[in-house]
Amino acid sequence: MTRVIVEHLNLVDFRNYATADLTLHRGPNVLVGRNGQGKTNLAEAIVFLATLGSHRVSSDAPMVRDGHDAAFVRARLAHGERTVLVEVQINRQGSNRARINGSPGRTADLPRYAHVVLFAPEDLQIVRGDPSARRRFADQLLIQRTPRMAAVIGDYERVLKQRTALLKSARARGIRGDALTTLDVWDDKLIALGSEIIDARSRLAADLQHPLASAYLAIAGEDHSPTLAWAQSIRGGDPEEGDDAASAESSGSTAELFRSALLAKRAAELDRGLTLVGPHRDDLIMKVRGLPVKGYASHGESWSVALSLRLASAELLRHESPAGDPVLILDDVFAELDADRRQRLASLTSGYEQVLVTAAVEADIPPVLHAHVVRISAGTISDERDVADESADQINKTEREEQADVDG
Fold first, then answer.
1. Residue 161 annotated as binding site
2. In terms of CB atoms within 10 Å, which of 120, 124, 251, 321 comes out highest?
3. 38 marked among binding-site residues
4. Residue 248: which domain range?
5. 39 a known binding residue?
6. Bridge partners, residue 313, by sequence
7. Is residue 36 part of an annotated ligand binding site?
């Protein structure tokens, strides 16, 4: 199996970095620095290459350094014996651009080359926050699992924007009922793209179920029977507004249900100037002990679910991808956990091919992950070699030889 790791990262005008270069190694890599120095920005850049999105913001513009029109993220990836150079130009306005091995490519193709699973404090929002956080989690994993879904999701969002603009215009002009015949064309496009997203999300939830239960048991040390299920607007109700009730008669193909739901809500959509049916209104319902995590789970249980979702994602990608292990990024997550969960998470992630850990306090990092150390201060990266501490004996023979070669 071909193993993929990120060997080198270069940034230009990304967040607080005018320029930055970061060399990474197999096994654990530790980025240490006080909060606000730029550690998470490095992690965010790697995640963007793999998912075409950020775990911190829903739009691209905040990632471009103030006063500049574009940011550049470049990475050298080792695919076994082969090297792949990937680059994305993130534009403050307009479409982003990509280059692969120096040649222009589609940004939607970038996730084919890098698989990344990120653990971050924001993960608690997946469990406790609005439905949009759960949709973003699912869609970013979908893109990594099936890279062509990046184009499907992007096309759906464009159609949704156009259809909603038409509804708002009709509302302003006082059009009601079936008078807006031009909506039918957009309905067809919305249904075709949205049905593909809904079906892919449903398969994802089903495939995550077993690894989620295993990961939860390993993290929490208890079997609380975690479950995942989508509440879908095409089946009645409006999950976006907390109405998860499904129609008793909701049978048929996804496309048929979608079309019926659009017809049923046509008057309401015209009245509100909103598209009220589709995957953009759905919610991923998570339960432990038979109860919804949101509103019922304790803080510790919520963290266990969030961590388990990420571990389950990593296991899914590890077993499905010809590229082998995804790169794991643990971004400031250890400071959020109690000592027991900290140790459990470290032991569960240390066996992956490449792990990137960021922390404000070096002592927060369990010894099993404490290897190659890089210090970050005010956007300046200083690389420490030959880290001499009690964790050195946990670096495997191959890593020691690679380190010796680098140190020359």
1. no
2. 120
3. yes
4. 127-320
5. yes
6. none
7. yes
